[in-house]
Design brief:
Blueprint (H helix, E strand, L loop, with lengths): L1 H4 L15 E8 L5 H11 L5 H13 L15 H6 L6 E6 L4 E6 L7 H8 L4 E7 L6 H12 L4 E7 L8 H18 L3 E6 L23 H7 L13 E8 L9 E6 L4 E3 L3 E5 L3 E10 L2 E3 L1 E3 L3 E6 L10 E4 L6 E12 L10 E6 L2 E14 L6 E3 L9 E14 L10 E6 L5 E7 L11
Parallel strand pairs: 1-3, 1-4, 4-5, 5-6
Antiparallel strand pairs: 2-3, 7-8, 7-15, 8-14, 9-13, 10-11, 10-15, 11-12, 11-14, 16-20, 16-22, 17-18, 17-21, 18-19, 18-20, 21-22
Length: about 450
């Protein structure tokens, strides 16, 4: 659910619509060059329209810049341009002959932690920028912690402003060594290191002659080749039902299909499935993706499944494979929550819970601890959770939820909390069966 609310498509390279989609986010400390990097990536890959380029030239001139300020391409809000910082999450879209991309340029300021969680929650890759002159900062640890919390499969440490340290290999190696120690503690899955100059374009789209000691890929080439959804199809099969589709065809008055998105593993025609929570058994009769009939559907395809027989099924039910690994089923849920609202979370507070396609209400039972977002230490007995805070909490739901641990499945292991009165999304939760999973001290 987080990747729906906090936001893909998969396919073979047979055309633009079928091209593989990669989502990535950028993060880093203030002035590390996140927006400039994205601007350079789009500019050098020729993904900027002429009118956009002209607009940036004019804006740069008004600000007194002799060169085009590429950060203006993503810093779209007036307040951002006036202050020279990123406040909101800026989404940009572009494509190369190999892949489509969605970029989430997220803020570096601690007061916009919620914005970073929003932008990074559905990312396949997190690009964390480090200023080569300053090295690893507290915010580097904080953003890396969030990448670990969100189980982002790939993290690229882009060591920027290498031109300001004379493209020193020693500086690069020292930063890489220090970050590898942090990454090991945070249990980050796959780490890549790239020396870049976002301002001048070194190793962003084109390989740089200034780093003859670096034999790795450019940033764009790495983004084009990193595996996407590499393990999702090996996960236990999950299909939360979103819509029930009836027939308006007189020839097939009894037609009934169940539409949704495959949220783990795959489903094949003829397979036995179990409908949760009713535990009714059936067989898959047909699978359709639009007007196309499929023999098998994979994560994260959106499809309609027809079953054999007439079973009472409603929105929020879940299909799983019969005799396979089943999701957990409980009314007491432990989770990490990033609080998104100015009104603090309160013990005993009642909220709407949305998880996959299901909805219920919940009461906050306890706040186990809060995370010091700068030192990454757990603050025990802290019962105040304000906007941008991350805490481990326990909730009791009115009806049981069907879920997996977030570390096992980012879709079925996430949820959002919604204010009953304003209907604002106030919290984004990652379900954890063991609170120590994300308990770090650096």
């Amino acid at each position: 659910m987080i990747d729906n609310v906090l936001s893909g498509l998969g396919g073979k390279e047979t055309g633009y619509l079928d091209m593989e989609l990669l989502r990535f986010s950028t993060a880093g400390s203030v002035d590390d060059g996140k927006s400039t990097l994205i601007g350079r990536l789009l500019f050098d890959s020729k993904s900027i329209f002429e009118d956009q380029l002209q607009s940036m030239k004019e804006a740069s001139s008004r600000m007194g810049d002799d060169e085009v300020n590429l950060a203006l391409l993503t810093d779209g809000l007036r307040a951002e341009r006036e202050q020279g910082i990123t406040i909101d999450v800026a989404y940009r879209y572009f494509a190369t002959p190999l892949r489509k991309f969605i970029i989430a340029d997220t803020p570096g300021h601690i007061e916009y932690t919620r914005n970073m969680v929003t932008g990074a929650s559905s990312a396949d890759v997190a690009i964390v920028l480090v200023d080569a002159r300053k090295g690893i900062a507290e915010q580097t640890k904080r953003h890396s912690y969030i990448a670990s919390l969100l189980q982002i499969p790939h993290v690229i440490l882009a060591i920027n402003k290498m031109d300001l340290v004379n493209f020193s290999k020693e500086v690069f190696d020292n930063i890489q060594k220090e970050y590898e120690e942090i990454a090991a503690i945070l249990k980050l899955k796959k780490i890549y290191f790239i020396p870049i100059s976002a301002k001048d374009g070194d190793n962003v789209v084109n390989a740089s002659a200034n780093t003859p000691w670096y034999n790795g890929e450019t940033l764009l080439r790495l983004l084009e080749t990193i595996p996407v959804h590499s393990n999702e199809n090996s996960l236990p099969a999950r299909f939360p039902v979103q819509y029930i589709i009836g027939s308006n065809n007189d020839k097939h008055p009894d037609y009934k299909g169940y539409a949704g998105r495959v949220s783990g593993g795959s489903f094949k025609v003829g397979e036995a499935i179990l409908v949760l929570p009713s535990n009714k058994r059936s067989f898959i009769q047909a699978i359709h993706e639009g007007t196309k009939e499929l023999n098998e559907a994979f994560t994260p395809q959106s499809v309609t499944i027809q079953l054999d027989g007439n079973i009472e099924i409603k929105r929020g039910d879940m299909f799983v494979k019969f005799t396979a690994a089943y999701p957990r089923y409980s009314s007491t849920i432990s989770l990490h929550v990033c609080w998104l609202n100015a009104v603090p979370l309160r013990i005993g507070g009642k909220y709407i819970v949305r998880q996959t396609t299901d909805e219920t209400t919940a009461v906050i039972k306890d706040i186990r601890f809060k995370v010091n977002i700068n030192t990454l230490e757990n603050i025990e007995d802290e019962k105040t959770v304000n906007m941008n805070d991350i805490a481990h909490i326990t909730i009791n739901t009115l009806k049981p939820l069907k879920y997996d641990d977030y570390s096992e499945n980012r879709i079925t292991g996430s949820l959002v909390l919604i204010d009953e009165n304003t209907f604002e999304t106030v919290g984004a939760g990652m379900i954890v069966s063991d609170p120590e999973v994300f308990s770090y001290n650096i």
